[in-house]
Amino acid sequence: MKILEGKTITDVKGFLANGIYSGVKRSKKLDLCMIYSEYKAKASGTFTQNKAKAAPVTLNQQNIDNENIQAIVVNSGNANACTGENGYNDAVKMTEKVAECLNLKKEEVLVASTGIIGVPLEMDKILPGIEESSKILSADGGENAAKAILTTDTFSKEIAVEFTVGGKVARIAGMAKGSGMIHPNMATMLAFITTDVNISKNLLDKAFKESVASTYNMVSVDGDTSTNDMSIILANGACENEEIISEESADYIEFKKAIEFVNETLAKLIAKDGEGATKLLEVKIKEALTLEDARKCAKSVVSSNLFKCALFGNDANWGRIVCALGYSDANIDMDIIDVFLRNESESIQIVKKGVGINFDEDAAEKLLDSKTVSVVVNLKQGAYEATAWGCDLSFEYVRINGCYRT
Amino acid sequence: MKILEGKTITDVKGFLANGIYSGVKRSKKLDLCMIYSEYKAKASGTFTQNKAKAAPVTLNQQNIDNENIQAIVVNSGNANACTGENGYNDAVKMTEKVAECLNLKKEEVLVASTGIIGVPLEMDKILPGIEESSKILSADGGENAAKAILTTDTFSKEIAVEFTVGGKVARIAGMAKGSGMIHPNMATMLAFITTDVNISKNLLDKAFKESVASTYNMVSVDGDTSTNDMSIILANGACENEEIISEESADYIEFKKAIEFVNETLAKLIAKDGEGATKLLEVKIKEALTLEDARKCAKSVVSSNLFKCALFGNDANWGRIVCALGYSDANIDMDIIDVFLRNESESIQIVKKGVGINFDEDAAEKLLDSKTVSVVVNLKQGAYEATAWGCDLSFEYVRINGCYRT
């Protein structure tokens, strides 16, 4: 598997896309994105577990398992969430309009929205936007598509990889957006993945959903699980490999590795671009009794407001790490754990057998002043590990979310 | 029942206390508190569910059900948490020293600590402090005692009430401290309650523990459950009522009402004085299917970072309230709920049947700019209700916890 620098979702065979300004965002930034597969494609997706589901989530859950999914339309600036029956009807109208323009059935179109909650969609802007967008779909449009799904994000989140299946060169590419209300549960923020691999629907589901659990679901920016989370993959088989149908096959293993890498890369980019974040936090749990224990511990530390503030201030406050492990509800023995702080070049042990040890506080402060900081916890109990990603809690997070009129 | 303005824990018959500076706090503020009952007393307590329990928590859990508890010693500035076996031995030494000075058994003394995690206690300051403190115990010392348990709190938290049991005038008084790492789970921050009521140990436990579940356990400042949470009540029977032994008796009901009021008052003061808080947030859930559903909903909204930021900015962002209800894991129907914002004088409906309604945004902004803001949610499903308390998330919270060297 190799990473394709600078490539995006439209660098996968048979996928066209674009991003335009339809008139919804006050900032006049791109706010409407369309993704289209020239070939019939299978889809798999995961959706928010929040009971307050946005209209597009409800609609997609009905359509995701249809035999063919050939287009996705996404608007940003308005989440079409908590908008009642009218909101649902608007989501349906968006898929109808796409279907009409691209000569598809409306059940072959998925829809996503992100932005403000509770405000009716401006359909008088979105429907003409869809029409315009459908006319300029392009194999160069991936970059604009990735821009058009952003809200408070400060940069586009894209990744593309290439690998071989059944002697054919295959690709997977993805794009995602954060960056607040990020604490996915069995689902994610918005992520859209394209691949030209030919794979059975069952195995596509299996590979994608398993991967989501260890990537997007391990990210937290602020503990708030959104109403609009979704991640979707379209697989159009255009690379012409023989269909992957066995999970024991080398092809499936290669595909799984690639999808895992793509999802993890996007998950980390979302955490890094968390609202107000000055750095990426990575929490690695080692030697846990079960996978669930490892994940609980990792998410508990990565979600701790107090530790996130300490990280913002470059304070090696290990007590807050141990405290968050303690309330994680995981099966752990506090008296045997070790904790380390790491960046790319250094590692400093700060806790040994559950108790703080003497360490060089200045060196730790310097280490914490890195773009990526890892907290490594060894539970010394079992064979499982997990990693979660998040960011620090800064003044800027409060400003973005508290000072809406400035 | 009447509230005794300006009264404190030592205004309950038979209780003496004080607060002194032992030398632990760099700020030179009071940092050692002792509470003493002149009569034998029964105790009840609740303790943190965090697996990383501080030494005093572990020790008190062994002693809380002893027949007689006559003294509590509390130091602030150092939490004696994650300090291993030495920390436990230090906690034992503190009870031994108190016992020696007051002519008690060490098993009749409880101990609490609050402050920085992971630093060994300075016993060379604390033990002489205990000796000094034991010599100046006084019926006027409650006020200093309440000061000596504070850390980042900006004011003392005290309450006293008077009521009648079995023809005798009885009192309950309490003091507590917050104000960060506050998200108690079956326990609390530090709260110490004194009463002169004569009541069976069983009913003391029942009344106190039930009350803790609906008061301290319904507070969240930052979602971080501390290593040191505890709430303790001492009942010395000095008001000479006939022992309360039936939970059907009018006396028990009166006692329960009073303890509920005292605990709720302290819980609200803790929320109001949350780190960086500019206002008190009260979330009332009505007509829930079960008590558990009501509590889950209330705690989910009161803990939402995003809604807390909106509250700081006086933004009536009802979408964040609905979102937090949706991920609360409670059994609710999002399509029928109503949501109101309230302060002392006004009420504004913002959500009807799960959908935002037109409301006067300027009036809502003005309402939110109050010292106490209530969010009232009607789930329209059942007969249960619950209230949770918290505060807004401000720049100051980040400064307090992120800028430790300034």
Automatic annotation (TrEMBL), chains A, B:
Site (Cleavage): 187-188
Gene Ontology MF terms: L-glutamate N-acetyltransferase activity; L-glutamate N-acetyltransferase activity, acting on acetyl-L-ornithine as donor
Main location: cytoplasm
GO cellular component labels: cytoplasm
Enzyme nomenclature, EC number: 2.3.1.35, 2.3.1.1
Record-listed substrate binding positions: 151, 177, 188, 275, 401, 406
NAD keyword on record: no
NCBIfam families according to UniProt: ArgJ, PRK05388.1
Assembly mode: Heterotetramer of two alpha and two beta chains.
Family: Belongs to the ArgJ family.
Name this protein carries in UniProt: Arginine biosynthesis bifunctional protein ArgJ
Originating organism: Clostridium cylindrosporum DSM 605
Protein's gene: argJ
